[in-house]
Amino acid sequence: MKTPPALHGIGRPTLEDVAAVAGVSRATVSRVINDSPRVSPEARESVHAAVRQLGYVPNKAARTLVTRRTEAIALVLSEGENKVFDDPHFATVVRTATEELAAMDTQMVLMLTQDETTHARVLRFLGGGHVDGALLLAPHKQDPLPEAVANLPIPVVFGGKLWLPEDGLHLVDNDNVGGARMATEHLLGLGRRTVVTITGPSDEKAALDRLAGWQQAMSADQDRVARLSACGEFTRQGGEQAMRELLARVPELDGVFAANDLMADGALRALRAEGRRVPEEIAVIGFDDQPAVAPLSDPPLTTIRQHPGEQMRRMVQILLRLVAGEDVPPGREILPTELIRRASA
């Protein structure tokens, strides 16, 4: 190890300084910094020691010019700020993406978009070479963003089903149909005869899949679906309002499958207000198993556990492989769900 040279420029160590201290060429330092295997163990250790001694920090802008990589990934949520920051599901999604990318020394750029103006800004950013790839959750039917992003020259991994042909795309989804069927079959197995459902918005694939799972278990035709279901937003207020509607229309109901935990918690509120006992008179099951909702409901909520954190982990893994140039076959990966029993059913 040589004596540190006088630093170039204004005092920030350069690649040349590291090379001088390590006693190797500038090209060798560059290969070590970029994790090239074409370096001897001795040279690698000398470079790492020089980096530590000088406090050298790679110039990412210069590195980007060489590697054409930004070491940044965009997480795009096609939802408004209120929903993203109020819904615990999205909190899990954002936290997991941040942690997984940070573990790979990659920066996450969070982008929220809900209208034409923000859509255009997101597309300009994604197509402008600012990120190496994108993770996109865009569940709504009329949203033009998924198709536009799919046509950009960057790798993209989608969360959930899309409202466009999925050929050639990479997607990771949860088993919404199977989970809803499992919940409804559990209620029927408890001896409940009139199991209603509170569905999510009809412009979201997850909501439609959960309705389809309930319908399969109930062997319900369209007339029965219309009578035994009520639609609401994926919120407590949406669940409470839909529950009141169903109590008025189907007073003999004795089982409820709600399409998410927030709606199920709202349904429990409506049932308490009407003096209906849970689970003695009416059993209730939700979907998601959100830690901030399901165990804290009154009574604690039986629910279907999906894994938004695992979904995001798989999305990140696939995207980083695509960014690295690996040949990852396109398709939709479906993650399993499970029934979590508590006091409500």
What does it look like?
By secondary structure, the chain is of the alpha/beta class. It is 45% helix and 16% strand. It has helices spanning 15-22, 26-33, 41-54, 60-67, 81-86, 88-103, 116-127, 145-150, 176-189, 205-218, 222-228, 236-249, 261-273, 308-323; strands at residues 72-77, 107-112, 133-137, 156-159, 170-174, 195-199, 229-231, 255-258, 283-288, 302-305, 331-335, 338-340. The strands form two sheets. The protein has a six-stranded parallel sheet, sandwiched between helices. A six-stranded mixed sheet has the order 7-6-8-9-10-12, with helices on both faces. The N and C termini lie far apart (70 Å).
Report the strand count: 12
Oligomer: single chain
| Element pattern in H and E | HHHHEHHEHEHEEHEHHEHEHEEHEE
Low-confidence stretches: none
Strand order of the largest sheet: 2-1-3-4-5-11
- Beta-strand percentage? 15-25%
Helical content stands at: 40-55%
Helix count, per DSSP? 14
Look at the helices and sheets and give the structural class. alpha/beta
Alpha-carbon Rg, integer: 26 Å
Provide the residue-averaged pLDDT: 89
Cα distance spanning the termini: 70 Å
Shape: elongated
The major pleated sheet works out as:
6 strands, parallel
Defining traits:
alpha/beta, about 350 residues, 12 strands, 6-stranded mixed β-sheet
Short description:
Helix content is 45%, strand content 16%. The protein has 345 residues and is α/β, with parallel strands linked by helices.
